[in-house]
Design goal:
This protein is an alpha/beta fold and about 170 residues long. The chain has 2 domains: about 1-35, no CATH class; about 40-165, 2-Layer Sandwich (Nucleotidyltransferase, domain 5). The chain has helices at about 5-10, 20-25, 85-105, 115-125, 130-145, 160-165, and strands spanning about 45-55, 60-65, 75-80, 110-115, 150-155. The protein has a 5-stranded mixed β-sheet with strand order 3-2-1-4-5. The longest helix has 18 residues, at about 85-105. The termini are far apart.
Length: about 170
């Protein structure tokens, strides 16, 4: 029994590496996953999301770090198979991170991004004038409502956790 939604992670078709090997190894033992239930005080745990999207002539992608309770740390690097602008890559990173946090059961999420435009649009400080950016913003707002608490925070690039994590995904 575990209090982490490991079944969700193991059943995702795009999960690679060690987690997939664990799923294969455990499948032969007919392992069943049962949630442990919340321990008092864990229901309001704050999750931390750091995202960074980038785009250049070689392509575009995103880096995501999700930190949860009890030292849980999930790092993902995504490469997009479509062309997009740097701002679109930043939105893709934020949305992918929000979806991951939602899948992991986060209720309170602090999302850090080095994109002042994206964090400003999601907080309502800035408006999305471009139709494509407006579409991303609307989807981010829908996802935002799935959390009890969601706070996007602009973090300068030099302070962004992802700067130290890996180089650009593209």
């Amino acid at each position: 029994m575990t209090n982490l939604p490991i079944r969700n992670v193991l059943q995702k078709p795009d999960v690679a590496g060690r987690m997939v090997r664990w799923e294969v190894e455990l499948s032969e033992f007919d392992v069943q996953y049962e949630p442990k239930g919340l321990i008092k005080g864990q229901a309001g745990s704050i999750w931390f999301l750091s995202v960074d999207g980038s785009s250049n002539q070689q392509g575009s992608g995103a880096n995501i770090i999700l930190e949860g309770p009890n030292g849980l740390l999930i790092e993902q690097a995504l490469r997009f198979s479509f062309e997009d602008s740097n701002n679109q890559a930043e939105y893709e990173a934020m949305i992918a991170g929000m979806l991951l946090a939602k899948e992991m059961g986060a209720k309170s999420l602090l999302a850090k991004s080095d994109s002042l435009l994206i964090t400003g649009q999601v907080t309502g400080e800035y408006k999305a004038k471009d139709p494509q950016m407006a579409t991303y913003l609307e989807y981010a707002k829908i996802l935002k409502e799935t959390f009890a608490v969601f706070e996007p925070v602009h973090t300068p690039k030099v302070q962004n956790a992802l700067t130290c994590w890996r180089s650009s995904p593209v």
